[in-house]
Predict the 3D structure of the following.
Amino acid sequence: MCSSAALPLATLTVEPHSPVFTGETVTLKCVIDSLSGWVYKWYKDRVNNVVFEGNTFTLKEVTESRNGQYWCKGEKKERPRSSQISSETTVKVQASKPKLTLSPGHQLLTGDSVTLTCELGVSSGLVFYWYRDTQTSDPVVQNDRNSYSIISVKVSDGGQYWCRAGRGDPVYHTQYSDEVEIKVTERSKATVTLKSNWTEFFSGEKVSLRCDIKNGESSDWGYSWFRNGVSKSEKEHEINPSQSGNYTCKGQRKCDEKESEESAAVGIAVSSEKAQAVLGSLSQMWLTEGDSVTLSCEVRGSTTGWRFHWYKTAPYSPELVYVLHENRGYSLQLVSDSISGAGGSYTLSPAALRHTGVYVCRGERGEPAYHTQFSQPQPLWVTGVSPPASVIIHSNWTQIFTYESLSLSCGVQGNSTGWRLRWFTGRGGESKCPTDWRSETGSSCSIRSSSSSDSGVYWCQSESGEQSNPVNITVHTGDVILESPTHPVTEGDRLTLRCRYRYKPSNISADFYRDGTLLQTSTTGEMTIPAVSESHEGVYRCRNPEKGESPESWVTVKETHSTHVDSGSFIILVVGVVMGISLVLVGAFSVFRLHQSKYLSGLCFTPTATDQQQQQQQMSTNQSSDQDQSQSAGRGGSESEYMPLQNRSTDVYNTITPLYMPLQRGATDVYETIKSSKDSQEDDEEEYDDVVPSDTRAEEHV
C-alpha cells in the first residue's frame, strides 16, 4: 500500500503593504522552504496566466493599473513537480497626495491648541514631514505619526502649512498636501481693575473690582471670577467683594465662546474694623491770640486717598452731628474752610478768641464717600488781649478742693443777653449749665459740692460766636492746691501765688515750680513776683513734702497796651502832642503879652491905635493858626482812616499818657502846665479888667 506526502507550500510576502502610493515600488517575494530547484511563477486576479517568473516580483512606480490580487507557486522538473499555491495579497494603489486638516480650525487665539492631521489612509511605516511657509524649507518637524500638535500657539506660529509622508530605502516621498493657513491673533487679555488707588479696605467700605477685556465691548463677553484660584459665583462685569484675597477674572466671547486670557491677580485686604481717624497731639493747646497752630489728622493704618474734614463742638442743635466719645456726647459743626487733602492738616493763623473750642476730624474717601469714625476730641484754648467777655470765678482761683462750692458767670462788657457758659469737662449736659449744676439768673451756673468731674475748661460764648478767654478749672481730690490768677496778668503787675492746704491751718510751707524747675521755697506758702514779664509765663505748681503736691496751673502774661500801638494811633498821638505844645506856647505868649501890657502901662506907655491894631491882628493870627492846627489834627486823626474805633477798644488818650508823657514823682504834667497857664491867663485877664488908668498905674509903679 502506497502513501503520498503533502506538497510544499509557497509563501508570499509583500513590501510595502497596501495601500501603496502611485509611483511607489512594491516588492513581492515567493519562498518555498523545502527542496530546491523551484521555478517561481506569479499570477494575478485568479487568472492562470503567468505574469512574472522568479522568486521576487518588483512593481516599479506603480499605478492604479497594478491594483489586484497577487499569488505565486513553484514548479520543477522532478517530483514533486508543483508546490501548493501561496495565499493571495492585495496590491492597492492610490493617489499619493495627502489631505491636511486642522482642528479646531484656522482662526486661533494665542494660547489655543491646534492639531494638524496628514490623512493618507495609511500611517504605518511612514514618516511624516511638516512644513511651514515654504515646501523647499526644511520641515519644522518630522514624526512617525500622521498628526502634529501645537499646544499653545503664538502669533509667530501663524502661516501656511503642508505635509507629506515617506517610507522605504531609498525613501519614497508622497506628494505635498494642499496648503492650509493658520491665523493666530493675540488673545484678548482680561485685566482686573480696582476702582480705587488703595488695596486695603475697612469694614463697611465699598470695594469695586471690574473685569476689563481688550478688543471688545463689555456686553460682548461673559465673565468668570476667581478668588485664590477658586471660581466664584459672580458673573458680572463688576463685583463688590467683601473678603480678602487674590482676585482674577477672564471672559468668554459670546459669539464664538472663545475665552480671554485670565487676568493677573489683584490682592485686596478687607479689615473687620471700621476706619478710625486720629488727631495728632499738640505740644501746646493753650495759645495767645495771634499765635499760629496746625492740627493734623490721619487714619490709623492707612495713608492713601483720604480727604479730611474738621469739626468744632457747638451748643446742641437738632441739625448738628451728634457723636459719643468715651461716654461723653458732642454736637459738632463743620468748619467750613477745613476740607483738606492728603496729610490732613488744618492751620489757624492767626489764632483768635473765636477759635477756642474742641476740635475733631474725620476722613473720607471713595465714591460714594466712605467716612471714618470721628477722631478723639482735641481742645484748643486761645486767650486774647481784650476779650469781649470773661469767665468770673467767684472763688477767684482756678484750683479748688472737691466738695467746695463753685460758681461761674459771664462778665460781659455791655449787654450780656445771648451769652452762655460753655464747658469741656467730665460733666455732660446740653442745657444752660452742666448736669447737676444749678442755673441762676443771667449767664451764671453754680454747684454746692464740686467733684473731680467738674474739672475742665470753661468759657463764655455769645449767640454770634464771640468768645471769652477760656479758664482751666481743676477740682482736686488731693490736699494741696495752688491759688493763681484766673485771667492773664499784665506785664509789670504783681503776681502772687499761694499754696493752700485743705485742712487748718491752710497756710503751709511750700516749694514753687515753674515748668518743672524749682523757683523758691517759702515758709509762708506764698510766692510773689513784683513785676511780671513774658519770661514768667509758664506752668506753675507747689509742693509740700508732707502734705502733697498741687495740680499744675498755666499762668499767662499779656503785654501792656503800649506795645500794640498801630500807625493810625501813632499819628493821633503825635497830633495830640503837637496840639498840647501849641496850647502851651499860646498860653505862654498870652501871659507874656499881658505882662508886657502891664509893664508898658506902668511906664506910662500908651499904645497908639496902630499898635493896638497890630496887636489885635497878631492875636487874631495866632488864634487862626491854632484853629487851623486843630482842624488839621482833626482831619489827620480821623477814625475811619487811622483808627477804626470799635466797642471795647482802648481809648486813645489812655494810651497817650503812658507812651509819650510818663508822669514821674515831682514832674509837671503837660496838661497841668496847660491848666496853670490858662488859670494864670484868667487871673491876668481879671487883673487887666480891674486896672486903673495908665497915669495912676504909672504913679503906683513909681
